[in-house]
Each structure stands twice: as structure tokens, then as C-alpha cells.
Amino acid sequence: MKARVLIVDDSATVRADMRGVLSAAGFGTTLCESLSAARKALSEGEFDLIILDMLLPDGEGVDLLEELRQVPRTAHLPVLMLSTEAAVLQRLKGLSHGANDYVGKPYDSAYVVRRAHELTQVPESDGTPRLVSAGRRRRVLVVDGRIDFRLRASDALRKDGHDVIVAESGDDAMRLLEAQPVDCILLDLEMPGLEGPEWVRVVRSLPGTSQVAVVGLTAGFDSKLISEALAVKVDAFCSKTEDIEVLRAQVRTELRRRAESEQQAAPGTPTRVSRSGLPAVSPASSTPTTAPAASAPASGGVHGNLFNELVARCGLSPVIAPSTMTRACRKAGVEPQLLNPVTLAKALPTIRDMLHIFLDAQEAERRIQSIQALTESGAARTR
What we know:
Elements: E1 4-8, H1 12-24, E2 28-32, H2 35-44, E3 49-53, E4 55-56, E5 59-60, H3 61-70, E6 79-84, H4 88-96, E7 101-105, H5 109-120, E8 139-143, H6 147-158, E9 163-167, H7 170-179, E10 184-188, H8 196-205, E11 213-218, H9 223-231, E12 236-239, H10 244-265, H11 305-313, H12 321-331, H13 341-358, H14 361-382
Parallel strand pairs: 1-2, 1-3, 3-6, 6-7, 8-9, 8-10, 10-11, 11-12
Antiparallel strand pairs: 4-5
């Protein structure tokens, strides 16, 4: 029998995407665009999981979450919350009211499917889930005071399918860590008002975070700062002046090491000697030895180069970007495979509306400006 998922989001695009990926993964789905519609669906049927947006036309998703937790029939119904990655307070509010997990928009559909499988499975008789989490290896917390760096880092990390959480201060980051586990922390060790090594020491003392991978970000090679960070077991270092792809590769390496260590330590598996806390240091003067950065998925091969550029610049997950941009173009009366600077300019208003569904207003406009530059540069080349 299929597990049934109630998808509550006011965006028709999000509901359609969620239905498509979850149906393909073997789930039954029911779609609702508001809290009132969700309440009606819950009164008429049983569900195994709710995917719930934080902000809806007739209220906040947390209002429904509170109602669910007060009724015995739904008190333990798994709830996966959706909202923008930057909404730290919303994320904390949802988790504090009983949400099982939280996924930031733009979301990685493959990650959502994995979490849906995990949250809807029936435990074994001893209470141990049958499936060991695969998606839990993909949550990264970026702690940096500069919004431009947070955006660049988030964009790069999403290419690898990570669920990215951002915090602009050590206090925000600590509150997030207390409410929700992560697999890797990117920390600006030189943030004003934050003693980076001391902050890491406190994090290492929290339950469940002692083994989290920590990558320290620096503006240059400060031997005293790096020595202090090594003492509190910062795993690796990366200069903020380097190409963002170096940071992306470093995170990938640290997560792979953690996954390999956990597999080696699994019952019945011979345990390999650990790294004994020795970090992989890659300060500004050296580049970490890592596998080449994975390239973003192609858009399907039927679209031209301009469409591929559009997909690359739109800021959505590689899983949903091609289909979402295809729908936006066709809604504007433009065929994606025939996209040129003139037809792209025609489609811009529709693309803007689509991006505002998934991204916050500032990020959506930043993306639109980048896409608009494609129309201008393309028109200049045709003169």
C-alpha cells in the first residue's frame, strides 16, 4: 500500500513538482493550496506525511502544526516544513512546535524524496528504522556575516544537492544547531564579535555535534588563529579569497570522510584507524587534494546554449531548474529549444514570477539581473 503524502503549499508549481517526484518514488499524493483546504483533507482521510509550507494565504503553517500536535490521531504524524533558507526564525519556530524536519527553498527534490521515505517507514520491533538515513549526509550550515558570501556559498553547495542553512551570527547558528542536526559547518573564524575557535569548542561540547565536520574560513593564513582552531578540532581550512569551487570541493571531501568513517565503524565492519583528529589543512597558500567539482546536470540536451545558461543562472536546484524554466518559457509563449536574446527578454516577466515562488525577493531579483544580462550580451553579439 502506498504511503500517502499531503502537500500543502500555495504555489501551483511547487505542488506540481512535489507530486511529480513523490509519485515517481511510489507515494500517493494529495495537494492543498491553503490551511483550510488542508484541514478539510485531514478530516476526510489518513496521511503518513505532511509537507507543509511555512507561509500560506490564510495563515502560517505552524498554526496547523500546533493543531496537529494537540490531537491524538495526528500527534505523531511526521511533518516536513518548507520555507526559504534565510528564514532562521521561521525554521526555529517550526522545529520548536514539533516539525520533524525542515527543507529550505529552493529545495533538492531528491533530498525531499529521501526524507519522505525515512519519515514514513515503519520502525523495526526494537524501534530501529529499517533504512539508514542517506539524506542526513547533506545538511550544511554556513555561518558568515556577509550576505554576498552566504549567497555564493549556498549556490555552490546546492549544486551537490545539499540542504543549506544560513546564519549571519554565531548566536543564530547556535540556536539552529540546538534545534536541528547538521553534517558540516562552514564558519568564518574571523567574524566580528565571534571568537571562532571558542565557538567551535562550545559546538564540540553539544550533544550530537562532537563529530560534525567543521571547515574554518579565513581571509588569509593566520598561523595563530589556525593553531587555536586546530586545538579545538577544526577539520579543514579554506581561504575566502579562493575560488568558491575550492570550498565546494572541501565540503564534499569532509562529508565523504565522515560517511566512510561511519561505514567503517558499522557493526560487523572492520574498523580502520581514524585520522586521530588531524585535519586536512588547505590555507590560502595551498589547494586541497580533492576530486574535481561535479558539473551541474545538463538540461536534457534538447535546448540550446542560451537555455543552459538560463538554467545555470536561475538559482534553483539542478533537479527542478530545467523543468521549471521550461514551464516559465512556454507560459510566456516561448519554446525553450528556440531561445534567443529577444525571446528570453519576452519570457523575463514570467521567469521573475516563477523565481519569486522559490526564492526570497532579494535573491530572486539578483537572479533576474543575472539572466537579464544574457539578453543584453546576446543582443550585442548579434549587432
